[in-house]
Amino acid sequence: MNVLLFLIPITLALGLCGLAGFLWAVKNKQYEDLDGASNRILFEDTLKK
Amino acid sequence: MKNCLHCEKNLEENQQDFCCNGCQCAYKIIKENNFDSYYDSRIINPKESSLKPDLESELDILEFISINSNNEFQIDLMIQGLHCGACVWLIENLLKKQDNVIDARINLSQKTLRIKWLKNKEIGNDLIKLISQIGYKLLPADQEVLNKIEAKFDNKIFKSLAVAGFGAGNIMLFSFALWFDTNFEISGSTRKLLHLSSSIIALPVLIYSGRIFFVSAFNSLKAGLPNMDVPISIAIFLASIVSLIQTFRGGQNVYFDSAVMLVFFLLIGRYLDFKARKKAFNVASEFSIFQAGFGRIESAEKIRVLPIKELRENMILIVAVGEKIACDGVVLEGLSAVDNSLISGESTPEKIQKNSLVYSGSINLNSPIKVKITKTFQNGILSQIISLIENIENKKNIYIRIADQFSKYYTPIVHALALVTFTIWYFYFNSNWEIALMNATAVLIITCPCALALAIPIAQTIAISNFLKKGIIMKNGESLEKINNIEYVIFDKTGSITIGKPILKNIYEIKGNNIEELNSEDAKFYLKIATSMAKFSKHPISQSLCNSFDGELEGVKVEEYNGEGLEAFFGEKKARLGSANFCDIYNKKPQDFIANSQSNSLANLRCYMNFDDKNIIFTFCDELKSDAKIVVDFLKKINKKVILLSGDIESEVKRIAEITGIEEFYWQKNPLEKAQFLQKISDKKINFMMIGDGLNDAPSLALSNVSVSFSKAVDISQNIADIIINSSKLSPIISIFSYSKTTLKIMKQNLILALIYNIFALPFAMAGYVVPLIAAIAMSSSSLFVTINSLRLNSKKNKNI
After folding, report:
1. Domain spanning B294-392, CATH architecture
2. Catalytic site includes residue B492
3. A6 touching chain B per CB within 8 A
4. What's the CATH superfamily of B500-624?
5. pLDDT beneath 70, residues of chain B
6. Yes or no, beta carbons of B197 and A33 under 8 Å apart
7. Cβ-count burial of B145 within 10 angstroms (0-12 exposed, 13-18 middle, 19+ buried)?
8. Cβ within 8 Å of residue A6, ≥6 positions away
9. Which residues of B make CB contacts under 8 Å with A?
10. Do A39 and B197 make contact, defined as CB atoms within 8 angstroms?
């Protein structure tokens, strides 16, 4: 069962990475406008000036 | 029939491709920039949101531009007319294509647009002009409103939910091993490691995500009204303490997983509730910003647009035709008429000229006027009413929500049972205090109103979003419950039960001392003459004439005598349309005609025409909304008492009451009297609903248990109202009553389901059989059960509102 001593910290670290990524996305206002986001995915590529 | 290429309105026969210059110009802009694909991908309903560009009004937004640290200019705007993703694409890319523009981003949920650009401030005005030219309406966003939204709806709940979800998922890794270790094959030290790992996840998560409940519980205790969050907080707290002790003492069972899962489920409910409220708030604030909020001010050379709060005394306000007057003031220039119906409830427009007093909230009808502001918005007639409302709101009875009513009895019982469990185990079975405490905690965990706290928000969210789809904006979930206690339904007249606009009723000719109704052929002929002239005027009566005539009109040159009437020549024949004086009808006073006619109650509003030596009278009345009778009948059928409360004159109110079959009606009530009347009802502890749209209704709306207003109503009424109907129809009232009833039924079912589950589970918990695995299964299955029950609100049968 010694393997748990490695695995548990690794699991926690990976989980925390995911959580941090999510919180980062929230902070960057990626969840502010879900209505807009669901439409944006269908847009043509952005036009150049 | 062909449609306009830009706004898709039906075209008249002589028009080609476009309905107006504005649309042609907009089409050109879009074509030149190679954004044609916009027209293919958009979904537009010209009846719902008009895309017709308004070339006349030019906004000056320099005041609202801010500069950030990188020397970029930035402005936040509210945008109206967005109907789908294609609009977002068009506006953003059109702006980004302009020189100097760094970024343009639309928030479709909030209907706001943020533009950033370089070089100089003035570019901002050009950018806004560009967007107005393609048909979208823009206004600087009221920073205060935006801040309010931000403060009220921050991401706290969302982040807490995410953290709790993370915790609930990860803690399972350890719990899973422990749950199925029924024969205790895991060694003591490994068990301790797994428990310790669980606690490392659980404790921070519980503190971070649980704080929403702790704070709410603390506040409710302080206010002396313990809510559902109290037992939740105690359960979480006790579960963590007991589990922590067990962890360090190497015990068998810890409840970290249950506690975290509990918080996660509860937060899902909270989040749904929060999202529904935010959506309703966004829609409501969008209405109110576009309703009034801004005034056009004449200064040195140009016209500036200022928010209402910035308007000062002695500024000169320019009010275009059809616009709302922003502040109380004196007319400096212009002859016109104002529609006071929103303020006084009277449907007849009032003539104004130089030196007339006008009040904020009136609508200017005939021609542009200039008004010198005499009172700022804060001191104007509105403020008196607002202070009246604030007084009322403070006195209003506090409604205790169904969940809190339930928890009022539930909480003490559950806590008593937990205590009983502890006592029995400790004193009767002589077990050590740890086991006793653990069983008591298990009781709290298993009875925690998780299903309850989840079921009610889900039912509410589904109901509110289904209402929203039907154009009914319910600002809070409380109203859903309160509607079911309503006994009286009180209607305002003008604009609420009636359309609030005159409708042509009859056409008479004056013959000697009598009046005679015209036969249909003559009536059509004179109506055609009148409409040919009326086409050129924006007076409500003229517009009503235009609406009632369908056919080809004569092209004539019309001269408008402001405030008096219209004159035109049809060949050699002179025609005049307007007041009795203007049309040279002196010989009879209007009252005599009315007395002579059979239908004596209808002619409150009339207009005269003199043509070819014939004197014609058009009579108008404020027509009932087409569904008024159906709604009143429905309300009577479900045993509600219907009352009509109006500021209008007796005969009008009586007529409306008779047609709709309302037995109790009151007339000529000013706002204060209306409020006093309702106060009396309220003192009798009778729950009532008020339906009104005007400023004169605002205090009454504030006083009522549930208030309903319309999206065309004055902004104060909208701010106060619990429910806003996004059309002028009355029939949504039926949906409001019937669907709320269904929703409440489902909520009650959920409560009963949760109760049954508790009654079953409780003995096991008290007997000490509820190990963490059982707790987890019981909790999730009961939550799932009530969730599925709530989803029934979406079924076709129930949704058919």
Report:
1. Distorted Sandwich (2.70)
2. yes
3. no
4. Calcium-transporting ATPase, cytoplasmic domain N (3.40.1110.10)
5. 1, 13-14, 44-61, 142-154, 280-281, 283-294, 300-304, 307, 309, 322, 341-348, 377-400, 451-452, 512-513, 538, 562-563, 584-605, 695, 714-716, 797-801
6. no
7. middle
8. none
9. 34, 37, 84-85, 88-89, 93, 96-97, 106-110, 155, 158-159, 162-163, 166, 169-170, 173-174, 187, 190, 193-194, 197, 200-201
10. no
